[in-house]
Write a structure and sequence with these properties.
31% of the residues lie in helices and 23% in strands. It is α/β, with parallel strands linked by helices. Strands 1, 4, 5, 6, 7, 8, 9 and 10 form an eight-stranded mixed β-sheet that branches.
């Protein structure tokens, strides 16, 4: 039974981080691992926070950790794993490597969830869709599972099959947010750039 009023929060922490050369989830900003900073931002808005990744790698953080049902199939598999695990109607999925993300953005996302009749609410910036700081309803499960079975692994490709509402740059600006909030890190160069934008200190483990 899906609880339509509940919101479950998921943080994707299982990536290989091959371009970064170290586990992004453990990199520190303001003295705190990125994954725990993201947990703290998300927790006030959801019933529960779950990490998606290898349990043996992240058990020390004291949070529920769920391994992907489909190994090495990327973010689409992680989102599908979360939707299968969740008993909530709406589910927020965040990458662990969003060091500038704030609770103000999550508040905007939750407000849109409560007002939306769509299947997904996803920011769309000048760089395109941002599918890993977004919300997906349980109604997305069949389309995602079809994609996995047919080896169509693009999460953005899913948007052709479900109803999607965009959060636009103008909406973010009106809410007092900067698009830089959604900047993620993939390389050491990204990390240096983000460190310049961050008000807090950043460091590597």
């Amino acid at each position: 039974m899906v609880d339509q009023e509940a919101i479950h929060g998921f943080i994707l922490a299982g990536g290989r981080s091959s371009r970064m050369g170290q586990d992004k989830a453990r990199m520190r900003i303001e003295g705190k691992p990125l994954v725990l900073r993201t947990v703290e931002i998300l927790r006030p808005f959801v019933q529960e926070v779950t990490l998606l990744g290898p349990p043996e790698r992240y058990a020390e953080f004291g949070l529920p950790v769920v391994a992907d049902h489909w190994a090495d199939q990327g973010p689409l598999a992680a989102v599908c794993t979360g939707l299968l695990y969740s008993g909530a109607g709406w589910n927020i999925f965040l990458a662990c490597d969003l060091p500038l993300l704030s609770g103000k953005f999550i508040r905007l996302l939750v407000e849109r969830i409560h007002a939306s009749q769509a299947d997904a609410v996803v920011p769309r910036t000048e760089d395109g869709w941002q599918p890993l700081c977004a919300a997906y309803h349980a109604r997305c499960r069949p389309a995602i599972m079809r994609g996995l079975k047919e080896n169509r692994l693009s999460l953005i490709g899913l948007f052709d099959e479900v109803r999607v509402e965009a959060i636009t740059p103008e909406e973010m600006t009106n809410a007092g947010l900067k698009v830089d909030e959604l900047a993620n890190i993939n390389t050491p160069e990204d990390w240096e750039r983000i460190a310049g934008l961050s008000k807090g200190s950043t460091e590597s483990c």
